[in-house]
Amino acid sequence: MIFVTIGLAAGTMLVMSLVFSYVLGWANSAFHVEVDPRIDAVMDALPGANCGGCGFIGCGEYAEAVVDSNAPVNKCTVGGESCAANLAQIMGVEIGAALPFRPIVHCGAHYDDRLGRTGYHGEPRCASANIVADVQGCTYGCLGFGDCARACNYDALHVIDGLATVDYEKCVGCGACAKVCPRNIITITPFKAERILAVTCSNKDKGKDITKVCTVGCIGCGACARISSLFTIEDNLSKINYDAYEPVCGIDVIKACEKCPRHRIVFVGKSISEDVVEFTGEVVEPEFKTTVDDTEWRG
Hints:
Oligomer: single chain
Number of helices: 10
Number of domains: 2
Largest sheet: 2 strands, antiparallel
Strand order of the largest sheet: 1-4
CATH class of the largest domain: Alpha Beta
Distance between the termini: 92 Å
Number of strands: 8
């Protein structure tokens, strides 16, 4: 009797396995979606960082966008020019010269430059400190708790004496630092040379108010704008027109830098220097935020 039971069980399992195999085979054929082999080729050519610097969730989504939606082949900041060339070859398209995108920290104040600092004892993160109105006198500047440094997967950003500082030798321009900065003082900008000029301040308050909270912040005096058309004053803050920026700056630009009374127009990039006299030859626009935009400023 027991052998009959075992035989029935085995026979039932065999029949079920055959039925399920047939059903799965039919489903695989009926619901099969043809995948363009170029997607796998693009995936193999990408570095696999999944950093999101291309604007897509990861390398897989970007690969599909390149093949299926004709997304630009030069969006991978980590892979750089060689990666873009490989993708262009796979897709059979031409690619022009592309500028590298790198971050600029629009603040130049270290701890000793900040006035009106208070004892903050909360969670040591910029996102947390940013909702506290009186962490420091300047409600626009770098908080210095290192959210940007923790977000960087390439060890290219460090907080030095309270100020986020980019190591351009390691930076790949993925934009992770800009995404996590609660005050939006890090912008991603196309570098037309290894070093370009930047306004390292983001405070939009009037000059007399800025001098009360920072010893180096831009006071919006307009000296740079009066000397060179490359500069404009918007919301009491000097701004550079990067569309008009040239790798070799004219003498008027150099004089404008020298004229800045707070020395906030500096060169950033490889071999960073704040000596504005020394010269070698899809922008994320600044949208600086104060601590709490709807809260009255008490700096």
